[in-house]
Write a structure and sequence with these properties.
249 residues; Rossmann fold; 2 domains; 11 strands; globular; AAA+_ATPase; amino-acid transport; P-loop_NTPase; ATP binding; cell membrane
């Protein structure tokens, strides 16, 4: 059985007076894509933010590569997470609007002090998926379209090899052709042994990219298994998600 790179055991998260996660158990196997699915408000984004220590787990434990990184008495900071090889792409993209595309990428490339030190081959590989970033390389990121900002957010996360990617709805706002490019990018990252935990509302995207799946409802994981098996079972999809993948292809 594939070793887990990320594990959450009985994780609870409170945000102010609100109890959002109610004992999340989640296993993210190494060198594969795990889809985190569920209705709006199920707790998916809170799970990603809890892993990144942006919100503190009030109970349970988050472990990365066998070492505790989150939970009562254990909290690794988000910058330390980045140094461990974990990258997070939030739904709000988290780009720097006043900086150029080039400057945004350079900030994310920890090994490069200037653009000349960027990995040219990897940058061209990214441009192959997201050509708009090359076109607007010197433009302020704030002037990009919503879809282009989403491309930039993902590009920032993958400008250097990462051990784990946490990505919240990467296809949101993208044209169909760019969605396909995004799918191709994640497949190639997986083939390069990157572990990915991916929240996505585009169910065809989930079917094409995912190896494993966890479905959340009301702050808990209510189903975990093989993505292909879920994609082939319309009845299970409807019961867990309220609709079938086949109606969204």
């Amino acid at each position: 059985m594939t070793r887990a790179l990320l594990e959450l055991k009985d994780v609870h998260t409170h945000i102010g007076a609100y109890h959002i996660l109610h004992g999340v158990d989640l296993t993210v196997p190494t060198a594969a894509v795990t889809m985190l699915l569920g209705r709006n408000g199920a707790g998916k984004t809170t799970t990603l933010r809890t892993v990144m220590s942006l919100w503190r787990a009030s109970q349970g434990q988050v472990s990365f590569d066998g070492a505790p990184v989150g939970g009562p008495g254990t909290r690794v900071s988000a910058p330390d997470m980045a140094r461990m090889g974990i990258a997070y792409v939030p739904e709000n993209m988290g780009i720097f609007a006043d900086l150029s595309v080039k400057e945004n990428i350079l900030l994310a490339a920890r090994q490069a002090k200037n653009a000349g030190q960027l990995d040219t081959a990897r940058l061209e590989w990214i441009f192959g998926f997201f050509p708009a970033l090359k076109k607007f390389w010197l433009h302020p990121a704030g002037k990009l379209s919503g879809g282009q900002k989403q491309m930039l957010a993902v590009a920032r996360a993958i400008i250097e090899p990462r051990r784990l990617l946490l990505v919240d709805e990467p296809s949101k706002g993208l044209a169909p052709a760019i969605v396909q490019n995004m799918i191709d990018a994640f497949i190639e990252l997986k083939q390069a042994s990157t572990t990915i935990l991916l929240v996505e509302q585009n169910f065809n995207f989930a079917r094409l990219v995912g190896d494993h799946v966890a479905v959340m409802d009301n702050g808990r994981v209510v189903h975990a298994g093989n993505m292909a098996q879920l994609a082939a079972d319309d009845e299970l999809q409807t019961r867990l998600l309220g609709l079938s993948l086949g109606s969204h292809q």
